[in-house]
Here is the input.
Amino acid sequence: MSPAPTPPVPVKLAGRGTPLWIAGLAAILVLVGIAASVSVCAWALGLGYEEGQVVIDGKIVVGADGDPIKLAQNPEATDASWDRLRQFLFDDHTDTLRYDDESFVCADFAEMLHNNAEEAGIKAGYVFIEFDGDTPAHACNVFRTTDRGLVYVDDTGTLDGGVNADKTVDLAEGRAYCPVSIFPDPRIDGEWDCMGRVSRIFVTW
Here is the structure.
C-alpha cells in the first residue's frame, strides 16, 4: 500500500516569561500525575534559553513530546558540494522514520537531520516556516552548497514510514511551499502536496 503524503502539523512553540504561578501549577499537575498540556509544560521550560535551542519571536521551538529542539554544532563542519550533500541524504535514514503526531513530527525530523549532518561534517541550518492564513507552521533544513548555493531540504517522513522522503523546496516568502523528491520512490503515488504560501522564514545556523 502506498503511504499518503504527510499532512501539515503545527510546529509547537514554548513561551518565555510565564508567570510563576502558572509554572508552579504545571509542576503540581505533574507531581499528582495529571497529564498537563504540552503548552503548560513548554511554558515551564521556556523560563530561560539554553545553547542549541531554536528561538522564534521569544518562544522556544519544541518537538512532538514538548521537549525543546536542541541543535548540535560541529565546529569542524563545512559547506558541502551538492554531490556530497546528495550522497549524505541518500545514506541518512531520517526520512524513512514514521511521522507520528504524538512522538515525531516535522520539527523532530529537521532536528535529527541537522544533527546527523553536523556529525557527518556538513554544516546545516534549521528552518522554521510560517504560512499565510490558518496553515500550521513547518520545519525543514538548509545547506550552503559550494556549487549550488542555498539548498532547502525537507526530510519529513510519511505516516507509514519506510520510504525515501528526501525532498528539496524552492523556498521563498510569498511562494507556495511545494516539496519535490530528490530520490523518487515508486512506493509513493504522485507528488508531494503543497502546504501553503510562505509568509515568514527563520533560519538558525
Q: What stands out?
A: The beta strands are 12-14, 55-56, 59-62, 125-131, 138-145, 149-154, 167-169, 180-181, 198-204. The mean pLDDT is 82. The chain has one domain: 12-204. The radius of gyration is 17 Å.
